[in-house]
Design goal:
The chain is mostly helical. The chain contains two helices and no strands. Helix 1 runs antiparallel to helix 2. The protein starts with 7 loop residues before the first helix and ends in a 51-residue tail after the last helix.
Length: about 100
């Protein structure tokens, strides 16, 4: 690791640990992708260590690279169940698993 004080994997693991600690009371994360997040963070760490980070992942183009985020299940994320309910009429997209984000 050239100039980073913490790895992406360490940050992701800290977030996962906190989610697991508080989510039983909050029920905020209804579907997780912890394993995929860990794999993506480890791959990012490998790229950073190698010094061959693609331009699209540069600090200028991806300033939040490596920062974990959560999203609502109403947003299309590859491999995650998509759930959406409309207020003017009931229409559920629950049960759909998009192939791409």
């Amino acid at each position: 690791m050239c100039c980073y004080q913490v790895t992406s994997l360490a940050v992701v693991n800290a977030f996962i640990a906190r989610i697991k600690e508080v989510n039983p009371q909050l029920n905020a994360v209804v579907a997780d992708r912890f394993q995929a997040a860990e794999e993506e963070a480890a791959e990012l760490d490998r790229l950073l260590d190698s010094g061959s980070l693609p331009k699209e992942l540069s600090e200028q183009n991806a300033p939040y690279l490596g920062v974990p985020v959560t999203t609502k299940e109403a947003l299309q994320v590859a491999g995650n169940e998509l759930a959406c309910f409309y207020t003017d009429h009931y229409h559920s997209l629950t049960g759909l698993f998009p192939e791409r984000s």
